[in-house]
Amino acid sequence: MDLIIIKKTKDYVVINKPAGLITHGAKHIKDVVSLASLLVAEFPEIVDVGDDKLRPGIVHRLDKNVSGLIVVARNQKMFDSLKGQFKARNVDKQYVALVYGQTTKDYDTIEFPLERSAKGFKMAAKPLGTLIEGNTREAITLFDVREAFINYTLLNVSIKTGRTHQIRCHLTAYGYPIVGDDLYSTKKTRIKNKKINLERIFLCATKLSFKDLDGENVKFEVEIPEELKIFLRKVK
Predict the structure, then answer these.
(1) Tens digits of per-residue pLDDT, 131-186?
(2) What pTM did the predictor assign?
(3) I need a surface site. Which of 62, 101, 142, 219 has the fewest CB within 10 A?
(4) For the domain 1-88+206-224, what is the CATH superfamily, name and number?
(5) How far is 115 from 123, CA to CA, in rounded Å?
(6) CA quadruple 6, 8, 14, 16: dihedral sign
(7) 125 touches 113 (CB < 8 A)
(8) Is 63 a catalytic residue?
(9) What is the DSSP string of the chain?
(10) Which one of 3.90.226.10, 3.50.50.60, 3.40.50.2000, 3.30.2350.10 gives the CATH number of domain 91-201?
(11) Fold agreement (1-88+206-224, 91-201)
(12) Domain ranges of the chain
């Protein structure tokens, strides 16, 4: 598998990650092809960049069955800069998602606090007003309708916080599960997912902007991949 490189500089590289590829390994996930392993093969200097050997140069991630833009630092100075920008919420990340149903609003902000569920491998949305303490984290997701269909709605989505599975968990808790997502779903949408056989989640990180080391704001944008375009044509 080859990397889809959108932009390469001496300080960073912007990648368009395909669905089906994990961003990086973990203690229990080793010796598998990941974005991290492909990056180290292409840019060996990043092996010592960052604060975790399993995530060389990687400041943020995308879930395995989600595609789109990721920026990776090629040196520690850029890594520290990006980490600071993410922490300060100065990085703009925008996504396109297709959800089941027609949303009742053209735009909205979802602010359910999130915490890891009792099962451990997924997140749980808590009621508004839940105290932000312990394992409960603030989470803010914004969306606006891009196009409405009979049984689906295509959304532009942006996030102000970067919690695990945030968009997926938030949209399901809001009442509109993402097409192809079996983890955050209802019994009805899981049945629908089997019928459509998309083999991925209809969620793509299409826009990304941040500041480079010269303080210039750099912006990147990609289209949704062909398999999502094909599916959209079927539901229109």
Answers:
(1) 787 788 999 999 999 999 999 999 999 999 989 899 999 999 999 999 999 999 99
(2) 0.93
(3) 219
(4) Pseudouridine synthase (3.30.2350.10)
(5) 6
(6) positive
(7) yes
(8) yes
(9) ----EEEE-SSEEEEEEPTT-BS--BTTB-SS-BHHHHHHHH-GGGGG-SS-TTSTTBSS---TT-EEEEEEESSHHHHHHHHHHHHTT--EEEEEEEEES--SSSEEEE---EEE-TTSSSEEEPPTT----TT-B---EEEEEEEE-SSEEEEEEEESS--TTHHHHHHHHHT-PBTT-SSS--HHHHHHHHHH---S-SEEEEEEEEE-TTS-EEEEE-PPPHHHHHHHHHH-
(10) 3.30.2350.10
(11) yes
(12) 1-88+206-224, 91-201
Active-site position among 11, 63, 92, 212 = 63
Strand 12-17 with 5-8, pairing: antiparallel
Among left, alpha and beta (phi > 0; psi -120 to 50; other), residue 160 is: alpha
Tokens encoding 200: 């991925």
CA–chain centroid gap for 111, Å, is: 17
Euclidean distance between CA atoms 94 and 68, whole angstroms: 10
Looking at residue 21, its amino acid is: L
Assigned token pair, 196? 């459509």
Evaluate the CA torsion angle 57, 59, 65, 69 in order and state its sign. Answer: negative
Which residues of the chain carry a pLDDT beneath 70? 26-31, 119-120
> What's the CA gap between 26 and 37, in Å, rounded?
12
Tokens of 29: 């996930």
